[in-house]
Amino acid sequence: MKIYHYHPDTGIYLGEGEADKCPVSGVNLIPAFATSEAPPAAGENQYAAFENGAWVAKNVQQPGPDHEPTPAEAAIIKRAAINAERNRREQLGFTYLDKTFDSDQTSVIRINAAVNTAVAAILSEGSFTVTWTCADNTTIDLDAQHLLALAAALAAHSDGLHQTARTLKAAVDAALDAGKTAAEIEALPTWTE
């Protein structure tokens, strides 16, 4: 069962996870500061927060001459910037067999469709080869096994970016928990190489 974590003080949505099961009863265990209720989709300049037993979408007050962000608002803005940079990098392509492959949304769909065809060929003990166009417009012939490895390379590319983003957002959360100022939170890195 999916559970959704929130910050113990601010209620700000932190991410999702899987509930552990009680080894005796098999009942799903929901830890403190988590719920089985999914948060609402937050629009631009919004964030989800768990307040009084329910999720709410809240507007982020933008910094300006009449408003300096609070540390919690600075954390929301920083987390959104980290997510945006992760998403941007996720679509810049990835390397496999010394070639750069596209990883935008359409390319990922094409990779998955080719992998499904490759799996069907493997299961039916047939052969399968596709000539794939790389990001630089050169081509490479990929058999079924290479297509499976291509999908694994794409997954590794995405996972590496998500791990970096999780680490950076954990630093934001730690700064907020430690009582850092909005300026100190804003100064945290949005990305690392």
From TrEMBL:
High-level lineage: Bacteria, Bacillati, Bacillota, Negativicutes, Acetonemataceae
Species in which this protein is naturally found: Anaeroselena agilis
Pfam families linked: DUF4376 (PF14301)
InterPro entries: DUF4376 (IPR025484)
Designated name of the protein: DUF4376 domain-containing protein
Domain DUF4376: 77-177
